[in-house]
Amino acid sequence: MANKSLFASLTSRLPRANAVNEAGGRAYKLEPKHALAQVAATGTFGNAFYSTAETQLDEVLKLIDEVDDNQYLAKLAL
């Protein structure tokens, strides 16, 4: 069993979750550039357990509108 007094101060230093993921769990909201990079690296635009291809595409289009760096978007597209 973990020693709660030893790790008690650690929980106050961790940031609180500020978003909800597709499964309904607690998550951290990513900055638009970071979220787009994550989708570019891991996204498949296929139906998944908690999301559909359409919702994934809608999220990418929304994130693109939030990023004002066209050079970044072009590099990400390649």
Structure, described:
This protein is mainly α and 78 residues long. It has one domain. It is 55% helix and 5% strand. It is built from four helices and two strands. The chain has helices at residues 4-13, 32-42, 53-66, 70-77, and strands at 19-20, 26-27. A two-stranded antiparallel ribbon has the order 1-2. A hairpin with a 5-residue loop joins strand 1 and strand 2 (26-27). The longest helix has 14 residues, at 53-66. The protein is elongated, with a radius of gyration of 17 Å.
List the helices and strands and how they pair.
Layout: H1 4-13, E1 19-20, E2 26-27, H2 32-42, H3 53-66, H4 70-77
Antiparallel strand pairs: 1-2
Helix pairs in contact: 2-3
Strand line-up of the largest beta sheet? 1-2
Cα shape: elongated
pLDDT < 50 runs, ≥5 residues: none
Distance between the termini: 49 Å
Helix fraction by DSSP (H/I, runs of at least 4): 55-70%
Proportion of beta-strand residues:
5-15%
Structural class of the secondary structure composition? mainly alpha
Mean pLDDT: 88
